[in-house]
Amino acid sequence: MEPVRRFGHLNHSQVELTHANSLTHPLEELVNVQHPVRPHLLVAALCTFPLIFVVARLAAQDAHFHNAPSSSAQQKNPYEGKPDAVTAGSKLFATSCAACHGATGQGTGNVPPLTEGPTLTAPDGEVFWFITTGSVQNGMPAWGQLPEDQRWQIVSFVKSLKNSAGAGNSAASASAPMPSVKATKTNAPPPQPPFTDFRFEEPGKMRKITAEALPAPYATDTSNNGPKLVARPSDAWPKAPEGFSVQQYATSLDNPRLIRTAPNGDFFLAESSGGKIKVFRGITSDGKPKETGVFASGLKRPYGIAFYPPGDNPQWIYIGNTDSVVRFAYKSGDMKASGSAEHIADLPHGGGHWTRDIQFTPDGKKMFVAVGSASNVDDTDTTPGEKNRADILQFNPDGSDMRVYAYGIRNAGGGLAINPQTKELWCSVNERDGLGDNLVPDYITHVEEGGFYGWPWWYMGGHQDPRHEGKHPELKAKVLVPDVLLAPHNASLEITFYQGSQFPAEYRGDIFASEHGSWNRSVRVGYEVIRVPMHQSGRASGDYEDFLTGFVVDNGHVWGRPVGITVAPDGSLLVTDDGSNSIWRVSYTGGAGQKNASEQKDAGAGRKNKSN
Amino acid sequence: MPVRAGKTNRTKAFVLILAAAFAACSLYAFQFGDRNELNGMRFSQVQALVSDLPKAKLLAQQGNIDLFAGNAVDGKAVRLRGELTDANCFLPNHTHAYDHAFCAKLCAASGSPLLFLSDQDNQIYVVLTSRNAVRLPDAVLDQIGVPGILVNGKVLEKDGIRAFAMEGIAH
Predict the structure, then answer these.
(1) CA nearest B120 in A: which residue?
(2) Which of A34-48, A322-336, A509-523 has the lowest mean pLDDT?
(3) Which residue of B83, B98, B140 to mutate against A (max A Cβ within 10 Å)?
(4) How many angstroms separate the Cα of A458 from the Cα of each of A182, A215, A368, B82?
């Protein structure tokens, strides 16, 4: 199942530090990642801003580094020319700065690289000033609490990146010792088919898991193996089957999640953490958006996006907040909502599983909303908080007449889709944890009205969850076996039916799905895009294929996590990635061999970062 | 009867001396029981001693305080499978540490009792440490919120409260 917890894997001793009111750098660095603009910083900045502004305007008539006062440039770095300071600075950088600026200073998400740009040319004193005072506007924390000598050492290290940048490569080749990601090797034996893990995921590799192949519960220990996100290594790039190329369509996003293509070809993206819906229009010749805008903001963890009524001329955009469905008036081509959100329906919320995807029946008469369970596997008979959860709910488009359309579906909030061929509702489901590495398979399936898919008492047909031994024997025969069983703990999210014409003909009608990746598995799995062949029949055979891989560094670290997926008007595939905070674009080029920007940039560099 | 009167006075004096001696001894014994005022030590100071039990034992010895640190908790040895969660979230709201492990660890670190939710019998156990004044192993605490962990320990039940003195992760 998908974890929603970047902090969930801090060990206990790290957490205890917060209680002791003695934040040390590793934890503080994490806090800064999550809350670059912390409230007390904001207050402090608001109080000091006028003064800084006046001083800056008076003292700096020309452009200084982040408007540093002129006097700061006069400050000399006491460690200038001292290699020991660079070494010490690199260690401080690793603990205090690398979480945002990347392990090698190459930048992550919307945090700029330090291996190029004004940081390298600004006087040491101005960089020191900026590190000390920070910038609320730029999300740069103030590091004034660090001892002065340590701040100068960081300056020395940052300045040393100039040499590496000048060498024409990233900081990886710097003469100074670089903070590096310590590889987490695994000596685990290869997985037993039909199961797999990241070491064996390869584009084009077909897989099929059946209910009969499932092991007994607890055949292996449960695992706490959440990914540590790192910046994308310079030689890493998503890997697609031969004949496809991969480009980075958009970068510096804020937690990009579900993405949907509007009938006019615009791409609507949920930036869930920031409460925004963004719009991207068009694709330039070099594969970038022609226009970008914010359609709506101030939403509560938005995820699902649906256009209503179905067809070429929708009048509304429905958004699945974590606690409600709202809608905005919409005209084709709108880049910004013309009015405020209209409340449509309240949704159960709280606990785990916050994503709420939305779809409409093709005739527009009904709206589906997927609401995942609040818990891993609590008994719904005795847990009031699970009411109307682990279900796909159905409403009228105005929010009235709610009923349970299908149940026992642990969490389909990550992805609903309408099969354009059969007009059936399909979903992508995160199944339960805690039964071992190879249980329970996530799945993609068509959804039957009134269908029961097992949770929490049963799974995959007549397999009883041992945590609910003896309960609900009358339901055993009712449990539906999903169409496509995926690797357990894959964390399957958005799905889309490929209706483009760019890919080879055999892809038409197939499902593409984003697999966010495991935490409850000893050797990680997922972190890829898969393809589910539908054989031009609208029906799945249970097979699926690795399609886009390469997001995992090793068993401890990943740099990318696919979430959303949609088909662009030109037939290319867009994949959101909340690990690198970017959108990837997969195009069919038909040529022999895969060509992508990374390989062009680092020709011959190979792909040797998989250390296992 | 001067002789008789003198004898009576001596007896009275002897009784008084005895009473005074007894009172002095009692007072001294009372003070001697916590002569270094360890029982009034601030919690934060005591907390620091968890990492230095030999020092705590020495202090207790010097202060004439009984210390049961390190003593094992009695109970029936078992191996349980389930989830470690914090009581502050689970008891009022039925919120598991699963999916909010950071929050649960923060609660636990601030002193919230831990609970163990057993998979086998759906019982809720108050978590004890297996030995007095010995912290739960970090390997156990790191598993807060992970479903299906297998742990060794001892179960005891008293006055309707089930407790699980947790020793460590089992494999």
Answers:
(1) A467
(2) A34-48
(3) B98
(4) 41, 15, 24, 18
Smallest Cβ distance to A5: which of B101, B109, B110?
B101
Using DSSP, state whether A594 is helix, strand or coil: coil
User: A57 pLDDT band (50/70/90 cuts)?
Assistant: very low
Q: In what order do the strands lie in the sheet with A276-281?
A: A256-261, A267-271, A276-281, A291-296
CB-based contact A467 B144, cutoff 8 Å: no
- Is residue A174 pLDDT above 50, yes or no? no
How close, in Å, is residue B44 to chain A by CA atoms? 10
Please say whether the beta carbons of B104 and B85 come within 8 A: yes
Q: How far is CA A534 from the centre of its chain?
A: 26
Res B74: pLDDT = 93
- Please state, in angstroms and as integers, the Cα–Cα distance from residue A359 to each residue in A209, A353, A495, following that order: 28, 18, 12
The answer on pLDDT for A594 being more than 50 is no
Output the pLDDT for position A93. Answer: 84
B-facing residues of A in 462-481 (CB < 8 A) are 466-467
Interchain CB distance below 8 Å, A434 and B119: yes
User: Residue A4: its chain B contacts at CB < 8 A?
Assistant: 99
Window 517-536 of A: residues touching B by CB (8 A cutoff) are 520
Three-state secondary structure call for residue A400: coil
Query: Tokens 């974590």 correspond to what residue?
Result: A322
Residues of chain A contacting B111 with CB distance shorter than 8 Å: 19
Query: Angle formed by the axes of helices A12-19 and B101-109, to 10°?
Result: 60
Residue A596 pLDDT exceeds 60:
no
pTM for this entry: 0.75
Closest residue in B to A19 (Cα) is B110
Token representation of residue B30: 């009372």
- State the DSSP H helix or E strand holding residue A367, giving kind and residue range, or none if neither: strand A367-371
Determine the Cα–Cα distance for residues B33 and B29; give it in Å rounded to an integer.
6
Torsion sign, CA atoms A290, A293, A299, A300: positive
- In a mutational test of the B interface, the residue from A5, A10, A11, A12 whose CB has the highest number of chain B CBs within 10 Å is A12
Here the tokens at position A228 are: 């540590």
Is A435 within 8 Å of chain B by CB? yes
CB contact, 8 Å: B102 with chain A? yes
Residue A285's alpha-carbon distances to A247, A289, A554, A585, in angstroms, are 12, 10, 34, 13
Q: Within a 10 A sphere around the Cβ of A581, how many other Cβ atoms?
A: 21
Who has greater pLDDT, A209 or A554? A209
Gap between the Cα atoms of A148 and A131, Å rounded: 10
ipTM of the complex: 0.74
Helix axes A25-34, A83-96, angle to 10 degrees: 60
For residues A522 and A226, what is the distance between their CA atoms, to the nearest angstrom? Answer: 9
Q: How confident is the model at residue B7 (pLDDT cuts 50, 70, 90)?
A: confident
Residue in chain A lying closest to B83 (CA): A434
pLDDT above 80 (res B8): no
A-interface mutation test, from B85, B94, B118, most A Cβ less than 10 A away = B94
So what's the pLDDT on residue A536? Answer: 95
What pLDDT, on a 0 to 100 scale, did the predictor assign at position A523?
96
- Which of chain B's residues have a Cβ under 8 Å away from the Cβ of A436? 148
The CA distance from B156 to the nearest CA of chain A, in Å, is 22
**Residue A468, min C-alpha distance to chain B (Å):** 8
Give the DSSP H/E element, type plus range, for residue A7. none
* Closest CB to A7 among B102, B108, B143: B102
- The SS3 of residue A467 is helix
**pLDDT greater at residue B31 or residue A197:** A197
pLDDT, residue B93, reads 84
